[in-house]
Each structure stands twice: as C-alpha cells, then as structure tokens.
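BUG: 3D viewer hangs when loading the predicted structure for this chain

Environment: internal workstation, default settings.
Expected: structure renders.
Actual: progress bar stalls at 90%.

Input used:
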Amino acid sequence: MASDSPPPTAEEIAYYDCLKKQGVAIVYTEYGAPREDKSKPWNDEAHRTCAAMLPPPPAPQPADPARLAAAQKESACLRAEGISWYPDPDPVTAQIDDRKGTPEQWSSLKRDHLGALKKCRPEG
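Structure tokens produced before the viewer hung:
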C-alpha cells in the first residue's frame, strides 16, 4: 500500500540515528520513517545529547481560502452571539488555538452555547 507521507529527511534520519546510538529504541513506520518506540522508557540524556540535531517542525499547511473564510466567519459569528473571548483562526492554517481560551471557557462553550455553535457551525 502506498503512503501519502513524504520519505524521511536526511535531518530526521540523522536525529534518530543519534538517539539510537544513545540507546533509544527506534521503530520504522510503514513508509520507512524512523520513530521512537513509545513503549520504552523516555531517555532524557539521549534527548539532550541529540537535541541540536532535532529537525525543525514542518511548515504549517495553508488552508484553502474557502476554509479560512469559513473559520473567520465562524469566529465573528460566535463573538456576535456573545462569546467575546472566542479567538480568530490562524491566518495561515485556519486552526483555532485552544490556548487562547481557558479550559472553563471551552467547557462552557460546549455546555452553555449549543445554540450559538449550531448557528455558527451549520455543517458541524
């Protein structure tokens, strides 16, 4: 079965090779990317030793313009419905940063504002 995932980068391979040399158990995904074996204990020393080799996170995938517009409209609608703290979506990914609200606010949104959610998220 073919994978849509890209092959591992040279930086990624070097990082996991470093971890392996430090005693970290490495497994490989179906598309050949190295990953830590999460069933094994965390190795702080190995991660500190190899930290400089850690590849940068991938660039965020831009949302298509329609998705971004829908997310912006949803945020504006929820604020108009009285949920003043509700954040704007990320201008690139259209994702909502849940760190911009407290756990209590997010719980309240789902518990106390179902009407607003249904109005502002008609398809969800």
